[in-house]
């Protein structure tokens, strides 16, 4: 007899790490009780390798009469799947007696870079620098989200952020036009929508930040959806006050059901960047009631729960405009939001910390109709890059990206990241350079490398001071941000800085000495 599986443990990973898979084990099996509730049905699969090694994964109900478990592991080869329920081996046999892990995941999974704690990294050691915009939910007038994801990938975008929202049928606790759906279970059509989104992201090469809960569902003040929430006692639910969601035992139990299922069903996907617990938790009723200790305790409990289940160690975060600092205490990276029409001021913001990854998960103008959106998006992208934030600030209005065809801005930004190798310069610092004749400029540099954006009135020759570069010859790549075209030449840095010709008014220049080391600063 095969022994009961051990409890899941947090993964211990050393980079580089190689993963193989995925492979799916499917069991035709039904058990009494709620299939989504681990208190009634703690269903897991133990995969036994050819050398006797045992790897455990949570199994999830697929919405029919079957359970599935997905395996990604560090060793290739055949594995024999065994089904357990509540610690007891079951007689059910898998559809295939053996599953094989033959294909290697190209880069593994994403995580915080322990060597450069202000950045992210793939398991194979490749730096990851998020570039993208939000794709919160399906808008009725927009193309299908899967189509939008494909367009994003074609533009060089490799990050997006998607909500488990009720109004487009992605909230697993909120059946849409399905009154017969059980109230205490997850809703299979919502889960199927997430399946399609993950598949689209994998195909497009995009990493998804998955937003598990949003403020409006438990708010009567800001985007209030609480009056219609299935958990509301007024709708036949169990929760009398939206402010109790963080402390109520039944609410926390059900939320853990969703987290557990999400880990079982989606954590194997290399397209999963991070779990985001809440969107803007400060707009919930609990926050308005001053119940910050409840909010902090909930975040710590759920982050710990996710980490105990996720075998691949995806980062955990939350997002906010104004949440108390304690909200972030158990998060892996900082994710503030920012809305402002003051583009010139925004372009110079550099206050995000670098002791841990931090980038703006939402940015946008507070009055989009009054702002030059192309200029706003461009300023936001290069402000984040050239302040060495962990990713670009992420534009919120995905419908306006489509309406105004702003994809070119992201395509050019992807080119800048590639040409500059900025993701590999985690320890670069903002340089307060001076451009003569005067022109606005932002720069990020090391002693033998500089990436700078200069916005001049017209093409001209300028002198750059304060870059603190080693003297010598540099390879220069200049990218015209209006056309995306680039040119290459050589320039010389002397004791009084450098003089360069700008072939266009708005450019990014990359100066690279390619010397492999630093000497005296200029």
UniProtKB/TrEMBL annotation:
According to UniProt, the name of this protein is Glycoside hydrolase family 5 domain-containing protein
Question: What InterPro entries does the record tag this protein with?
Answer: GH, MAN-like
